[in-house]
Amino acid sequence: MRGVVVAVEIDARTVAVGDQVMIGGQGFVVRDLTALGAGRKRLEFETGETFVMNRATVLWAARRHDPRISRGRPGGPSRN
Length: 80
Prior knowledge:
Blueprint: E1 4-10, E2 20-23, E3 26-37, E4 40-45, E5 50-53, E6 59-65
Antiparallel strand pairs: 1-6, 2-3, 2-6, 3-4, 4-5
């Protein structure tokens, strides 16, 4: 896998599969996500454990980012 690892602040809306989150001083890698309604998500980790993120839960995660891939910016110039 290419790219660099960056620290990002995540919530239930922005969490992604592959994120490495720290909970209680222990690292977990997100394997699967399930939307539960009311803005909540159940995270399943590679260890088999689960964690429910409420809409207001904020965590820090390590996420791999490839700076060579243009993600574009809203309102910015388009490359056609």
